[in-house]
Design goal:
The complex is a heterotrimer of chains A (161), B (792) and C (262).
Chain A: E1 2-8, E2 11-17, H1 23-30, E3 49-52, E4 55-58, E5 71-73, H2 87-94, H3 104-117, H4 123-129, H5 141-150
Parallel strand pairs in A: 1-5
Antiparallel strand pairs in A: 1-2, 3-4, 3-5
Helix pairs in contact in A: 2-5
Chain B: H1 21-25, E1 41-47, E2 53-59, H2 61-64, E3 69-74, E4 110-111, E5 117-123, H3 126-134, E6 137-142, H4 149-152, E7 168-174, H5 179-188, E8 191-199, E9 202-203, E10 211-217, E11 222-227, H6 232-244, E12 251-254, H7 270-282, E13 286-289, H8 292-298, E14 301-302, E15 305-313, E16 319-331, E17 358-367, H9 381-399, H10 403-410, E18 417-418, E19 424-425, H11 430-440, H12 446-455, E20 459-468, H13 476-481, E21 490-496, E22 502-506, H14 515-527, E23 534-537, H15 555-582, E24 589-592, E25 595-598, E26 604-606, H16 607-615, E27 630-635, E28 644-653, E29 660-670, H17 677-697, E30 727-730, H18 750-769, H19 783-790
Parallel strand pairs in B: 1-13, 11-12, 16-17, 22-23, 29-30
Antiparallel strand pairs in B: 1-5, 2-4, 2-6, 3-5, 7-17, 8-15, 9-14, 10-11, 10-13, 15-16, 18-19, 20-28, 21-22, 21-27, 24-25, 25-26, 28-29
Helix pairs in contact in B: 9-18, 14-15, 15-16, 17-18
Chain C: E1 5-7, H1 12-19, E2 24-27, H2 33-38, E3 46-49, E4 59-62, E5 65-69, H3 74-80, H4 86-92, H5 98-103, H6 106-112, H7 119-125, E6 129-132, E7 136-138, H8 139-142, E8 157-163, E9 167-174, E10 181-189, E11 194-199, E12 207-208, H9 210-218, H10 243-261
Parallel strand pairs in C: 1-3, 2-3
Antiparallel strand pairs in C: 4-5, 5-8, 6-7, 6-8, 9-10, 10-11, 11-12
Helix pairs in contact in C: 3-4
The chains are: A alpha+beta (161), B alpha+beta (792), C alpha+beta (262).
């Protein structure tokens, strides 16, 4: 066991980890941050996406020890302290971009990374960026729409009903 | 009358933001794997890596001595325990009941599929359990695997279950008495179209893998199971009564936030029984969390039908008869609903939207050395729709007629309509949904779009189809006659608190459907209060009435109807209280906008005054009614609901590679009245996504040795965002259901039922337009398959 | 996963020393290794993380070659090679998904030599030199069949030097599930030669299609490929594509790559 320290959502965090402890397990089991989900074991579903030093990573495919000293952001740190949803979270709610909610933390974190890189992505750019985030409920329609809305684009013309 | 949803701000027909979203968007959801109990142990299941084998010995002695191991269980530990029950018994065409094999919690005597659990290692940590599982010494004699259904039925085939007479579960004929008339109609037909096809085996793949956490309270002797289920009461009944022998009052089943179900979380699984059993045996909580790899070989699969369908037409192109011959894979054991899927959820839908007078359906259900197969979104109805809508398309091509015109010509137009396959459609307007489809899909513009594609070297195809489905399952007396071993009503308890807020405890379960938002819309509108005053409680057998859960697009049609009935009782009682306080007669009391008033006067009383009086009965008709305001209703539907619609898909085909891309997809559905249009849209979107997944991408493929070749996301192609387009969906055609109080029809499965034939029809259209003599390609239409078809 | 120790050296020398331990294994971005470990298909006693070694990060142009540190992520190459070697940047930007690209490294990809990975095609087509802690290896000599290279135990890819061609293009036809290459073709046109490298197709792993190279060297146009094909024998076959289909795709993609590069 090694003591692993990192900053999580702006606060120092520290816990014991084995060499094999994944960052996702460290967050969920050691720090109790169960908003980060694990939906596969082949690094494809993206439910576990968090940011490490400002970039999106799959926390189920990174060892906790590798995040020693890093700045980690998870879904739990996305809303304001008073609970106000951030612009991405709000857009997902406004446009029904989630159903069961299991893939949602990863979707929100990937969207945050996308909009950092590309503040006004096209529909196609969004769809391509989400290659590593699988949703089984929404058929992606309202996720893509929510992301376009979160980036300030007019989505009123997109087929809704 | 349908309301214009844009005008509606609250209540039925509005689209309020989902209240459950806030917790899901902030990481505050409470999924089963997020729950950890003090001192819990972990279980790892050692699963068979061979499809069929005889267990000679299982030596756990070295493993049991490994660090952290609490106990190792094998089939022998469960000999005194019941098997996993099947919820449905089919009677075959000879009047015999189906063959029903024992289904042990852990394998006994033989392993029957890759994934069959042989031993369960409970240890202080999951890694320790897995380490110890590797130290178990197995001696298993490998037997030939039975994978192909037709081979499994051949004389002398290896038997999956030695104690059964063969691998045939049942041979079902429907309607058997129709058979001679059907044969005669075929003999007289002017034209017969025949199509052989496969409805590909799928894996539901909700993004949350299954989890079971068993707990035992030594002080009370109570067992608790936390599980990823669509129907906690069903699990409590099946597991308590049939497997473990725990009465309901000593067993609590909790299904908290559940990350998608799609059918595969309906069934009672061995892992649930194991964790409950082991927690009691060890006096310690026991947790199992499925890995995705494990999910592929332990979650029940779906579909897997092989069918020959024939359509007979007269010289005017009227459908005169239909017959089908289907082999349906059951896998190695009968999962909870498995026998009903290819029969009562499939045969009864073979009339589709058409007035075909004579229909005969034959289904042979077959045991194979594969994972059990059961309901997956649509369950039987996608299989029915696919074959019917494909054979009609093929017939139109053979006859050189427009496929839409051929459908319209044969539409059922008068309702109620009794089909020759035992169901009665209450309402529908198939021409209206087809008209709407032609509009929203801009079918008139197809030729121009095809020309544009051609200019880019791509071939455009258009596929259209209809669907009807039977959902909102189900009338208990009817399904009882058909072999269901349970009733399929739903329950609700409405508890009004003293200050006027309501808690609705429902047997329905929400795992993405948004019940916490949509159900209050109905209740609040009935009373005339704000939706925020209504809270939905579900998922815990300890605080909800015995209900049957969520599947078969039943939550609003059946569960919602129970809520309405309970709320009607609440209102009736509240009116009595109001009448007493207002010194009027019950019959003169009106409830509007949360105010009770005496008709024709300005005397009124607020909702909250009446609810307070119910609990502070100082001025109260105590001689007539009890204090308090809480009512329960059980609603058993009189019939299924019959949503219907018309779907259109446009594809572009790359003639060099065979790659198909979905360019446009439109769905015109009739769901009767709509409570929350936003949620309905979302349900249709998701269903279409899964239907396109089935049509283009997904396949659970076994090799002849019974190894699952598509056993991870590396080989099982899940639809991603860039595989799918925006969808054009419409549900403005509304013929309300006539037999439930809300006039609603189910919308959860329609998208998955209606979409696969549209995709395949479109691809065949593209291939035909290239001059290829291709009349069918089996799903999934992968680039390799389409290319092979083009170059066949 | 079996348990293991993790060491995080900050220099190549320290990494090499750490890798001399029994059953030690290098950990690049871990995007293949960690899923493999989860399946318990490997049991290293120690993982030596290469991500903290500054001298293995980043890229520079030198003598007509783009030299990329072995621990440089796909995302970095995708972002920073757009000017110097756009076809390579595009290839890197199409590997896996964004989160995978932020962790996965060029050195790790080449050392793993997955038969459906993209980078081996780029390295082979670019006539790359693969620099390790011990030696320089020509890409033509580096790959040695499925998941196999000539790297010795404990030897790490510290840098990859790719010759920048006059024109190049990579065409990837994705396997629908994994999104790896069902077939991928990298065409690179140099002043004196054309190199065509193919991934995803062959039972032997990444290879050069020499007939196409010869034809394109005298006439760099898709037309030059008319009539050329590879035999299906020797191609891979699985549930996503037959041998014949892969052989066919190879021809189509090569033409498309040439057309896009020309």
């Amino acid at each position: 066991m090694t003591k692993v320290s990192m900053t999580v959502n702006g606060k120092p965090a520290q816990a014991e980890a084995e060499g094999r402890t994944l960052l996702s397990s460290f967050l969920r089991e050691e720090l109790g941050l169960t908003g980060t989900h694990v939906g596969c074991d082949t690094s494809q579903c993206g439910a576990c996406v968090v940011h490490v030093n400002g970039v999106a990573v799959k926390s189920c495919t990174m060892l906790a020890i590798e995040a020693e000293g890093a700045d980690v952001a998870t879904i739990e740190g996305q809303a304001a302290a008073d609970g106000t949803l951030n612009i991405i979270q709000q857009a997902f709610q406004d446009h029904h971009g989630l159903q069961c909610g299991f893939c949602t933390p990863g979707m929100v974190m990937s969207t945050a990374a996308l909009l950092q890189e590309n503040p006004k992505p096209s529909e196609q750019e969004i769809r391509e960026y989400l290659e590593g985030n699988i949703c089984r409920c929404t058929g992606y329609h309202n996720i893509v729409k929510a992301i376009m809305a979160a980036s300030g684009q007019d989505v009123s013309a997109i087929a809704a009903e | 009358m349908p309301k214009d949803s844009d005008q509606i701000e609250s209540g039925i027909g509005a689209s309020p933001k989902r209240r459950e979203d806030v917790r899901f968007l902030t990481g505050a959801g409470n999924y089963t794997d997020d729950i950890n109990l003090n001192g819990q142990a972990y279980v790892y299941f050692l699963r068979s890596d061979m499809a069929h084998g005889r267990i000679i010995s299982i030596d756990t002695s070295d493993a049991a001595a490994m660090p952290g191991v609490v106990q190792i269980f094998t089939g022998a530990d469960f000999e005194a325990v019941g098997g996993i029950p099947c919820g449905w018994q089919i009677t075959d065409k000879h009047g015999e009941v189906m063959q029903e094999p024992a289904h042990p919690v852990l394998a006994q005597g033989k392993v029957r599929y890759v994934g069959d659990a042989i031993a369960a290692v409970v240890a202080d940590s999951l890694d320790q359990a897995r380490d110890a599982a590797e130290a178990i010494v197995l001696d298993i004699e490998e037997l030939p695997a039975v994978i192909n259904m037709k081979a499994a039925l051949k004389e002398g085939a290896t038997k999956v279950h030695d104690d059964l007479t063969s691998n045939l579960c049942y041979d079902w004929g429907f309607v058997e008495e129709n058979k001679p008339a059907v044969e005669e109609a075929f003999a007289k037909a002017a034209h017969v179209t025949t199509l052989e096809l496969v409805n590909n085996r799928l894996i539901a793949n909700p993004m949350e893998p299954r989890v079971a956490l068993g707990d035992f309270n030594r002080a009370t002797g109570d067992s608790t199971l936390y599980t990823t289920s669509q129907n906690p009461h069903v699990i409590r009944l099946l597991m308590g009564a049939f497997v473990l022998g725990i009465p309901e009052h000593k067993l609590r089943v909790i299904a908290p936030d559940v990350g998608g179900g799609f059918g595969t979380k309906i069934f009672h699984y061995a892992e649930e029984a194991f964790c409950t059993f082991a927690a009691k045996a060890l006096n310690r909580a026991v947790k199992w969390t499925s890995s995705r790899a494990e999910a592929f070989i332990s979650d029940a699969h779906g579909r897997d039908h092989v069918t020959t369908i024939q359509l007979a037409l007269d010289s005017d192109n009227n459908f005169t008869a239909l017959r089908t011959d289907t082999h349906a894979n059951m896998g190695a054991y009968l999962s909870t609903f498995a026998p009903s899927v290819p029969t009562w959820l499939h045969g009864t839908l073979m009339a589709g939207n058409y007035k075909t007078p004579l229909i005969y359906v034959n289904v042979k259900a077959v045991f194979t050395n594969t994972v059990p197969v059961d309901a997956y979104r649509g369950a039987g109805r996608p299989e029915a729709t696919f074959q019917l809508e494909r054979v009609i398309d093929k017939a139109a091509r053979e006859l050189g007629v427009d496929p839409i015109a051929l459908r319209r010509q044969n539409f059922i137009t008068e309702f109620p309509y009794a089909t020759p396959v035992a169901v009665e459609y209450d309402t529908g307007d198939y021409n209206a949904t087809m008209d709407k489809l032609e509009e929203i899909a801009d079918l008139a513009g197809f030729a121009a779009r095809r020309a544009k594609s051609e200019a880019r070297g791509l071939v455009r195809g258009l596929g259209v189809n209809c669907y009807i489905e039977a959902c909102g399952i189900a009338p208990s007396n009817l399904v009882g006659q058909l072999g269901a071993r349970a009733g399929l009503y739903e329950s609700a308890t409405v508890r009004v608190n003293a200050t006027g807020g309501l808690v609705v405890m429902t047997g329905s379960h929400s795992h993405g459907q948004g019940h916490e938002t949509s159900f209050p819309q109905v209740i609040a509108e009935m009373i005339g209060i704000d939706e925020s005053m209504v809270e939905i409680v579900h998922g815990d057998t300890a605080n909800t009435p015995m209900g049957m859960g969520t599947y078969g697009s039943r939550s609003l049609a059946v569960g919602g109807s129970a809520m309405v009935r309970a709320t009607e009782k609440i209102i009736a009682k509240a009116k009595k209280i109001a009448a007493h306080i207002l010194e009027a007669s019950d019959a003169d009391i009106e409830l509007k906008d949360g105010q009770f008033s005496i008709a024709g006067t300005d005397k009124s009383l607020a909702w909250g005054d009446v609810t307070l009086a119910a609990y502070v009965p100082h001025n109260y008709p105590l001689e007539d009614i009890e204090p308090g305001l809480e009512e329960t209703a059980f609603y058993d539907p009189a019939n299924f609901t019959y949503p219907s619609g018309a779907y259109a898909c446009e594809v572009e085909l790359d003639p060099e590679t065979g790659k198909v891309s979905i360019e446009r997809f439109a769905a015109a559905d009739d769901f009767g009245n709509i409570v929350n249009p936003m949620i309905v849209d979302g349900q249709v979107h998701g269903g279409i996504g899964q239907g396109i997944g089935q049509a283009l991408l997904e396949a659970a493929v076994y090799n002849e040795d019974g190894q699952l070749l598509s056993a991870s996301y590396m080989d099982y192609a899940m639809p991603r965002a860039d595989d799918l387009p925006f969808y054009q969906v419409d549900h403005s055609c509304q013929t309300p259901c006539t037999h439930n109080p809300l006039g609603v029809k189910g919308c959860g499965e329609a998208g998955a039922i209606g979409s696969p034939p549209a995709v395949v029809n479109a691809v065949v259209d593209a291939l035909q337009s290239m001059g290829k003599d291709v009349t069918h390609v089996d799903m999934p239409l992968s680039p390799a398959r389409v290319w092979a078809a083009m170059n066949g | 996963m079996y348990n293991f120790e993790v060491e995080k050296p900050t220099s190549i020398a320290d990494a090499v020393a750490a890798l001399s331990a029994d059953e030690a294994q290098a950990l690049g971005g871990g995007q293949t290794l960690i899923p493999t470990l989860k399946q318990r298909l490997a049991s290293p006693s120690k993982l030596v993380s290469l991500s903290g070694i500054a001298e293995m990060q980043g890229m520079r142009l030198a003598a007509g070659s783009l030299c990329i540190g072995g621990a440089t992520s796909h995302a970095t190459v995708a972002a920073e090679a757009t000017g110097s070697y756009p076809a390579l940047a595009a290839l890197a930007g199409g590997i896996g998904d964004p989160a995978v690209r932020n962790r996965g490294t060029i050195g790790g990809s080449l050392a793993n030599n997955d038969p459906a990975a993209c980078y081996p095609a780029a390295a082979l087509a670019s006539g790359a030199v693969i620099v390790t802690n011990a030696r320089e290896i020509a890409a033509d000599d580096f790959f040695d069949g499925l998941f196999t290279t000539v790297l010795e135990e404990g030897e790490i890819v510290t840098e990859v030097r790719l010759q920048v061609p006059e024109a190049a293009n990579y065409q990837k036809f994705v396997q629908p599930a994994s999104r790896f290459a069902l077939v991928g073709v990298f065409v690179a046109k140099f002043a004196n030669a054309v190199r065509v490298a193919v991934t995803g197709a062959s039972e032997e792993g990444v290879f050069r299609w020499s007939e196409a190279e010869a034809a394109l060297s005298s006439n760099f146009s898709a037309d030059a490929l008319e009539g050329l094909s590879v035999a299906p024998e020797g191609m891979m076959a699985d549930i996503h594509g037959s041998k014949a289909y892969r052989a066919h795709l190879l021809g189509v993609l090569t033409k498309r790559a040439v057309a896009a590069a020309a």
